[in-house]
Write a structure and sequence with these properties.
single chain, 325 residues, alpha/beta, seven-stranded mixed β-sheet, six-stranded parallel β-sheet, 15 strands
Length: 325
């Protein structure tokens, strides 16, 4: 079979190699899945660069999120068991953690319903307890993680403010349903949020960026607001001033979604049921900006790493033969 492999850490476009390899053999509790679609996540790029908290042994095949097909023909969503990741024709996964792919979504959309939407649901509902009528501010609102949070916020009845970088991403954020869109390249984020909220600020802030975005969040969070720290796509990890959290009565909430897989896996199943129901009634639908063949994976991962994509980019091995999955 064909699979992308990383033999040394570095930039995705430089170190990823498409190779003919042996089909992986499932270990105890694992299943072999035919990859129907693999979603590209920012952690894939970090892992390839050697900057992620999880580092599989070299060589490895990246790709942490797929829609796959079991030997008996079922469509499932899975997180592949590295080093046999999803940027390949076949991947391995934990049999106990498979989730049914929603009928309402195609393969690429189903692959993208997992990590980003689960993270959004846990962040907004489990951690921040977002309520209808509140204001939600989403940084990087046109990206893969941010776009999921925007849709989930709207589905929960919140007013959503999206912060993006550039006119193209601003247009995407509007299409996603943001009530207010702020282009951080041309607008003052702090002043615009305060104006949009009558000076009150945002009740919940969803931040997958860190750095300057977090500094802005601390200045626009409302009384008894909640800042959900999801990641640091900017590459800069902020050091919050806890005295500031005290004097403004706001909460700083960390979210590492992957921990629920070992700490409370039943919650992941419950979340998937909620997401499936939302997808069935059209309240959420992953934004797939690109569908690329397996041969285009390295270039696509590099685009995600460089932050120039919107929504999600999906790899579809069947496109190689001119057949859409």
């Amino acid at each position: 079979m064909q699979a992308w492999q990383v033999h040394q850490n570095g930039e995705p476009s430089e170190v990823m190699r498409l190779s003919d390899v042996e089909q992986p053999v499932p270990g105890e509790g694992q299943v072999l899945l035919k990859v129907r679609a693999a979603n590209i996540n920012f952690p894939d790029a970090l892992m390839i660069r050697g900057h992620y908290q999880v580092q599989p042994p070299l060589p490895f095949t990246p790709g942490v999120e797929i829609c796959g097909e079991t030997e008996d023909g079922r469509r499932v969503i899975a997180n592949p068991a590295l080093p046999y990741g999803g940027f390949a024709e076949y991947a391995l996964a934990d049999a106990a953690a498979l989730l049914p792919a929603p009928d309402a979504l195609d393969d690429a959309e189903a692959a993208a319903l997992h990590i980003g939407y689960q993270t959004g649901w846990f962040g907004l509902h489990r951690r921040a307890h977002l309520e209808a009528g509140e204001t939600l501010l989403v940084h990087a609102a046109a990206g893969g993680v941010g776009s999921a949070a925007v849709q989930l916020g709207k589905a929960a009845g919140a007013t959503v403010i999206g912060v993006v970088g550039g006119a193209e991403k601003a247009a995407v954020a509007r299409e996603l349903g943001c009530d207010v869109v702020i282009d951080r390249r041309t607008e003052d984020v702090i002043a615009t949020v305060k104006q949009a909220t009558g000076g009150r600020g945002a009740d919940v802030i969803y931040d997958p960026v860190g750095g300057e975005a977090y500094a802005q969040s601390a200045k626009v969070v409302a009384f008894e607001g909640r800042i959900v720290v999801v990641g640091f796509a900017s590459g800069s990890i902020p050091s919050p001033a806890l005295n500031h959290a005290l004097v403004k009565n706001y909460s700083i909430l960390g979210l590492h979604w992957g921990l629920y897989g070992t700490k409370n896996p039943k919650l992941i199943q419950h979340c998937h049921e909620q997401l499936t129901e939302l997808a069935a009634r059209g309240a959420i639908k992953p934004l797939i900006s690109e569908r690329v063949p397996l041969s285009g994976t390295a270039a696509a991962v590099q685009r995600v790493a460089d932050g120039v994509t919107t929504g999600r980019v999906a790899v579809l091995p069947a496109l190689e033969n001119g057949v859409a999955a």
